[in-house]
Design a protein that fits this description.
- By secondary structure, the chain is α/β, with parallel strands linked by helices.
- The protein folds into 2 domains: 3-32; 61-270, Ribonuclease Z/Hydroxyacylglutathione hydrolase-like (Metallo-beta-lactamase, Chain A, 4-Layer Sandwich), CATH 3.60.15.10.
- Helices cover 19% and strands 28% of the residues.
- It has 4 helices and 16 strands.
- The protein has helices at 3-31, 186-192, 210-220, 234-240, and strands at residues 61-65, 71-75, 80-83, 100-103, 121-124, 126-127, 132-133, 137-140, 143-153, 159-168, 173-176, 197-201, 224-228, 245-249, 253-256, 266-270.
- Helix 3 packs across helix 4.
- The longest helix is centred in the N-terminal third of the chain and has 29 residues, at 3-31.
- The protein starts with a helix and ends in a 9-residue tail after the last strand.
Length: 279
């Protein structure tokens, strides 16, 4: 065998061994569970075999209730989130900006994105003018946002499509249940995941009556449920809160953190921005 042939065989053998080594390493690393970037809400994303993260005592987010289904959430990293922005004429127009806004229903009381400053990304739960669901699953800065199809009641008792949105902040999971009008199915509960804070409609016509809303809270088991869509009717809030500890805050804002969540579900009532003070 010539020197050239021996060198060719040695080279081929070297590359073959290198290929096998790379293949084995890739296989080895593929078998090691890697923590998901956002593992708070959905158990399906949680890597097995890793310890639970430690949560700092500082606030993870500040939540502000701007009326109806309209919330403004600011994370500890400064990311601004808005939900179902309410059109003018009901409460004073808030001067808020957002990086992203979600729309769970195509209606003037839910989709007035023009009210927000900052040219936010608009995530719509429905397309084709509300005729069909639109799938959302996206990272916006440090927040992972996804939606869940649901139904809302029509004025004639029929059903219209709507959407809930979940905001995974990494340590805290917030669900905005849109205009939900029915108890959740097992599939919807699985899609929503493990919730810390549930923004819960209790309207009674286009949304759930208070007793149905209590059933949904029992299904999701959030640590905090914040009622919305009750049109300043505190009688609905009282019905919704039956059997739970209820806190009325004479403010539109609340700071929240994983470390300070109550041990069992608590109803927290925020006074909408610009609304009359609670008596």
């Amino acid at each position: 065998m010539s020197t050239t042939e021996r060198r060719a065989r040695v080279t081929a053998s070297f590359f073959y061994r290198s290929y096998r080594l790379c293949f084995c390493l890739c296989l080895f690393w593929s078998l090691i569970p890697v923590p998901a970037a956002h593992a708070t809400c959905r158990e399906i994303n949680v890597a097995r075999g890793f310890p639970s993260p430690a949560y700092a005592a500082e606030f993870d987010a500040t939540m502000r209730y701007l009326g109806h289904n309209f919330f403004h959430i600011t994370t500890s990293k400064g990311t601004e989130l808005a939900t179902d922005p309410l059109g003018p004429g009901w409460y004073p127009d808030p001067h808020v900006s957002a990086h992203v806004v979600t729309v769970g229903r195509e209606h003037f009381n839910h989709n007035y994105v023009e009210i927000l400053r900052g040219n936010p990304m608009v995530l719509r739960g429905l397309n084709q003018f509300g005729d069909d669901w639109n799938r959302v699953s996206v990272n916006v800065r440090e927040v992972f946002i996804y939606n869940i199809p649901l139904y809302q009641n029509g004025a004639d008792g029929g059903y219209l499509k709507g959407a809930a949105f979940v905001f995974d902040l990494g340590s805290l999971c917030i669900a905005h249940l849109g205009d939900l009008s029915h108890p959740l199915t097992p599939q919807q509960i699985k899609l929503i995941g493990k919730i810390d804070i549930a923004l819960t409609p209790i309207g009674g016509r286009f949304t759930m009556a208070p007793e149905t809303a209590r059933e949904v809270v029992a299904q999701l088991k959030p640590k905090i449920a914040i009622p919305m869509h009750y049109r300043d009717d505190l009688r609905r809030v009282e019905e919704f809160g039956e059997g739970y500890r209820v806190r009325y805050l004479d403010t539109d804002s609340i700071p929240v953190s994983k470390a300070s969540l109550p041990s069992s579900t608590e109803i927290v009532v925020l006074r909408p921005y610009g609304a009359a003070a609670y008596e």
